[in-house]
């Protein structure tokens, strides 16, 4: 699961860097599509934010899952005693 996040994060960073490169190339050569670099930078930033939010939510769910497993184990122990 974390391998997927790592690959997604690398993809988002590549998108962001390529957007910055395109933006600076547009400043030098004005023959490219206007705003392409800015749009690519925005896409890269949005992808990074979505990935970090998804990872934080996954970590939160993992912690909740561990807590629930502990509660289930405690209930199983109580069940065996009675």
UniProtKB/TrEMBL annotation:
It comes from the Bacteria. Residues 51-78 form a coiled coil. The keyword Membrane applies. Keywords: Coiled coil, Membrane, Transmembrane, Transmembrane helix. The chain crosses the membrane at residues 10-29, 35-53. This is Uncharacterized protein.
């Amino acid at each position: 699961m974390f391998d997927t996040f790592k690959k997604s994060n690398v993809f988002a960073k590549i998108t962001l860097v390529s957007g910055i490169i395109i933006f600076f190339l547009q400043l030098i050569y004005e023959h490219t599509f206007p705003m392409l670099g800015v749009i690519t930078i925005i896409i890269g930033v949005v992808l990074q934010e979505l990935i970090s939010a998804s990872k934080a939510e996954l970590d939160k769910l993992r912690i909740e899952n561990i807590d629930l497993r502990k509660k289930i184990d405690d209930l199983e122990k109580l069940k065996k005693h009675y």
